[in-house]
Structure prediction request, 279 residues.
Amino acid sequence: MPTDLAMAKLNLGLHILRRRPDGFHDLSTIFYPIGWADVLEAQPAEHLQMTCTEDSLPADESNLVMQAARHLAQTFGVRTGALVHLEKVLPMGAGLGGGSSDAAATLRVLCRLWALRCSRRRLRRIALELGSDVPFFLYGRAALASGRGEELHPMADYAMPFTLVVAAPPVHVSTAWAFGQIRPTAHERPDLEEVVRSNDLDRWHRELTNDFERPVMSVRPLLKAIKRLLIDTGAGFASMTGSGSALYGVFESECDAIAACDAARQAGCRTWIERPGGG
Ligand code: C5P
Prediction:
């Protein structure tokens, strides 16, 4: 039975550059995959259907898993069905990309289940129709992203030499709403790849900004408090990921990272710790 992990991502810096005629925004960000993941499984079935461990997530056509499955079946004229099971582990509405990653993992498991000969290019096109960051989750390695988030410039050789703590408070943020709060600018933006590769956390603090932080934190002060908590427990750098609500702290000391994780959990967050080299 084909099984796959749908990994989460963090955004290392996120610049919203301009609004586009198609209603989307051009942006610049570094997508950084982490090991926190949902689990997808597919087995043969007569019709397309899905089950999910999370009751609050509708297992119907509104789910990106079902949309991905339908899109793939239509594109390749697949006549059989499939039962896709989603074990939902990742917090939702948290800026970790869980829904998009589930969609990408669905494409992967169903390509295997249906033995499709699908070129990367064709799969990427289907992915982008499902969501702006779905192509990144097909690729799955660190990358500088531009355009809507689908133009990927690989940074697969980059591995962060720090311990990461991800803290997801029980808050959902709508991405579409968050984009509506931004006044985009492409003026005097630092080169995100150069900043990240420096591994200089003071520089990250000054230049690795996320444009969503200010508007989202102004209506959700808890997120500002969690960011403060990460800094106070020893993070050399902390940021929101995507349009929130999850935050992450970057630690030089693993001991500090473990203490920060405990503190964030006590403050009501779900947490993940990612050591250098993953895990
Ligand atoms: O592409 P995706 O479905 O993930 O986007 C969700 C919403 O976020 C879009 O409807 C749009 O309002 C906004 N968005 C945007 N520019 C992007 C990505 C998303 O304006 N590059």
User: Anything to note?
Assistant: Residues 98-113 form the longest helix (16 residues). Residues 24-25, 27, 131-132, 148-149, 175-176, 179 surround cytidine-5'-monophosphate (CB under 6 Å).
